[in-house]
Each structure stands twice: as structure tokens, then as C-alpha cells.
Amino acid sequence: MSEVIINPYRFAGGGTPDGLGSDADCVMTGSVNFQEAGKVDTYSLEFAGGKGTISLSSSLNLSSALTISLWAKNSSWAGAGSTSQILLGDVGGGQIHLTFMDVNNKKIKTEGGLGTMFSGTLALDTWYNIVIRNDGSDSSLWIDGVEADTATGSVTTFTNWYFGIDGVNYPWDGFIDSFGLWSRKITDAEVATLYNSGSGNPVDTIDTTGLRIWYNWEQASSPITNQAIP
User: Fold this and answer.
1) Is residue 210 domain-resident?
2) How many domains does the chain contain in total?
3) Structure confidence at residue 12 (pLDDT)
4) Is 230 a domain residue?
5) Which pLDDT value is given to residue 2?
6) Residues in CB range of 215: below 8 A, 6 or more apart
7) What is the pLDDT of residues 182-197, one digit of tens each?
């Protein structure tokens, strides 16, 4: 009888992730809580003044294309004129920001290298699927499977990532689940699959080709293991 070998890196969506493996494990510090109230799986991560940090040993080149997808739920609006930092990336020559805006502008906002984009008005304590796509020159922001805004922008390389806080400023009071980053622009149909009519699907439900970082938050302890293994 011939031996049957099961490929441990065969994902549901097909393809092989071009992952960063343990180089992209995420260290959590400060006030963060693992909650059995995940949007997609069992756990999500609650930020209450804490943060998550990814420091890559080598830069990640995303100049040709990228996609970021996550689920987020905001528990309180920042004071007027401030923001709550969902995600910050250090990129060649600058940064990108993904934030919940203030009590007077109840929206999601992106700014920095990928351009400035806005969602429509949002509610507290509600899960939203957020997707940012870029093809090397043009960006788009998608909320719950629908394109909300577009901008012109590009990035080169990423080295450091921060969830939940920008240094000691702009802390976020909220939840995150099912984060994925691809070095490709996923399709409209794949955006719809991840949203799944509001029920959500795991990151590996779509083609994992170009998947570099994937956190499902199911480890329920720090560091968070990058599930995208090359």
C-alpha cells in the first residue's frame, strides 16, 4: 500500500499562502482581552488601551498590490477632534492609518500612503467587515461587501504594524477578528465571500495565494500566531 501524505498547508480556498510564518507573529501588550464573542470563529480580541505589535525582520514589499481584510466593532467614539486607531502600518516614506473617527464623525477613515477614504455613518457595538484594496496606484475601501470610497495612493514596503493604538496615542476601545493581508488585490467576489451576507467567513475560505499574514485570534494568548505559513 502506498503512503498517503496530507499536505498540512492545503487551505480551504485553494492555492498556497506566500506567508511570513512566525516572522509575523503579533505580540500583545497592555489591556487586551480574549473574548469568546468572535465574529467568525470562537474568539475575538478586545482592545481597552492595549496594543498588538508586529515587527518584521525584513520589509514586506506591497508596492504592486495589497489587500487588508478584518472585522471590527467599536465600543465608544473618540472625543471630538481625535480618532481611535484600528491599524497602523509603517511604510516606506510614511504610514497608513485605519481609524474609527470621533463622536462628531461616526465613520471609518483611512489616510496616509493609500489615500484618504471614508465610510458612511456607523453604529457602536456593531461588527463591520472592512476591506482595503490597492493595485499599486488606486485604492478602495469596502464596508460590509460594498465599496464605500476610492482614492489614489500606493505604498512600498512595510516593516512594523500596530493594532489598537498608535504608540501611546489614539487608543481604541473595541474588538477585532479575522485579520488577513494579501500581496494581491482580491476580487469583488472574494470580498463578498469574506463578508458572507454578514455572517463572515474565515480568511482561508478564499484563494490563499499571496496571503502573507492571517490572524484568527483562536490561540487566546500572546503572541498571536500568524496562520499564513509558506
Assistant:
1) yes
2) 1
3) 60
4) no
5) 35
6) 26, 178, 179, 180, 224, 225, 226, 227
7) 999 999 999 999 999 9
Domain interval for residue 30: 21-123+130-215
Entry field: residues in the chain: 230
Asked if residue 84 belongs to a domain, the reply is yes
User: DSSP per residue over the chain, as a string?
Assistant: -PPP---TT--TT-S-----GGGG-BEEESSEEEES--SSSS-EEEEES-EEEEEEEEEEE-SS-EEEEEEEEESSPBPTT--EEEEEEEETTEEEEEEE-BTTS-SEEEEETT--EE-----TT-EEEEEEEE-SSEEEEEETTEEEEEEE----EEEEEEES-BTTBS--EEEEEEEEEESS---HHHHHHHHGGGT---GGGS--TTEEEEE--TT-SSSBPP----
CATH number for the domain harbouring residue 158: 2.60.120.200
Name the band, by pLDDT with cuts 50, 70 and 90, for residue 10: very low
For the entire predicted model, the pTM comes to 0.93
Residue 223 inside a domain? The answer is no
- pLDDT, tens digit (0-9, with 9 covering 90-100), for 134-172: 999 999 999 999 999 999 999 999 889 999 987 678 899
**CA nearest 56: which of 152, 131, 162, 142?**
162
Alpha-carbon distance of 34 to 191, in angstroms, equals: 26
